[in-house]
Amino acid sequence: MERRMKSVKRRLKGPPSMQIRPMELADLPPVFELGQKLFTAEKLPTLYRSWDEDEVVELFGSDGETCLVAEVEERIVGFALGAMMEKPRNAWRYGWLEWLGIEPRYKRHGVASRLLARLTEMFIERDARIMLVDTDEGNDDALAFFRKKGFNHETKHVYLSRNLTSHPQYLEHKEAQD
Ligand SMILES: CC(C)(COP(=O)(O)OP(=O)(O)OC[C@H]1O[C@@H](n2cnc3c(N)ncnc32)[C@H](O)[C@@H]1OP(=O)(O)O)[C@@H](O)C(=O)NCCC(=O)NCCS
């Protein structure tokens, strides 16, 4: 019984010596690298949002205040990148968790739980009334995590695509380039 309690406690607190702290400029390269490992096209095929350097730099530039990292022995093992959002003609403020990623070796140790808890507090301090997350419908790990954390009201989006390579203008454009 005591052993079980200890294991529950460890999961809630994360690995020993883990620190959750605001993201800093120097964290951009390790955060980007970890994201690249996690958000690759084969793992998350519906890349309606892509993980690239520009996106991460831009988000950190505009919403750095709500970007957090988890660190163990000076190594970044997770990140949560969030942004505050206001919708036009809507007085409510939203906190959007845009990217959440945990080093595979540290999964199921409560790292994401700690990041999410801190980010939630930060959103509330900034008057958010709703928190939003989104993920691919095939991302079972993320869905299990978010559902466990009380996210519901799931809405499906349909992303459509059209191949433009047979479009007359595309062909013209290509011909002009050759
Ligand atoms: C989804 C993700 C962030 C979860 O991180 P994590 O640190 O492993 O999550 P936690 O350890 O805090 O999990 C808390 C609870 O969520 C649930 N959970 C998390 N991952 C789960 C999984 N793979 N399967 C089932 N339940 C899961 C469990 O109830 C877990 O508690 P437990 O371990 O005591 O059973 C992580 O798997 C990840 O980085 N995935 C790749 C990137 C990604 O998809 N990001 C989300 C979209 S941006």
Describe this structure in words.
Strands 1-2-3-4-5 form a five-stranded mixed beta sheet, sandwiched between helices. β3 (75-86) and β4 form a beta hairpin. It starts with a helix and ends with a helix. The mean pLDDT is 88. The chain is α+β, with helices and mostly antiparallel strands and 178 residues long. It has helices spanning 2-13, 28-38, 53-63, 111-125, 140-148, 168-177; strands at 18-22, 67-72, 75-86, 93-102, 130-133. It has six helices and five strands. The protein has one domain (2-177): Gcn5-related N-acetyltransferase (GNAT) (Aminopeptidase). The structure holds coenzyme A.
Structural class: alpha+beta
**SSE pattern:** HEHHEEEHEHH
Give the cofactors and ligands: coenzyme A
- N/C terminus separation: 73 Å
Q: According to CATH, what is the topology?
A: Aminopeptidase
Q: What is the count of distinct domains? A: 1
Named CATH architecture = 3-Layer(aba) Sandwich
Enumerate how many helices there are, as a single number: 6
Strand order across the largest sheet: 1-2-3-4-5
Question: What's the CATH class, please?
Answer: Alpha Beta
Strand content: 15-25%
Residue share in helix? 25-40%
User: Taking all residues together, what is the mean pLDDT?
Assistant: 88
The CATH superfamily name is Gcn5-related N-acetyltransferase (GNAT)
Q: Main beta sheet, described?
A: 5 strands, mixed
Q: Compute the number of strand runs.
A: 5
Global Rg: 19 Å
Uncertain segments: none
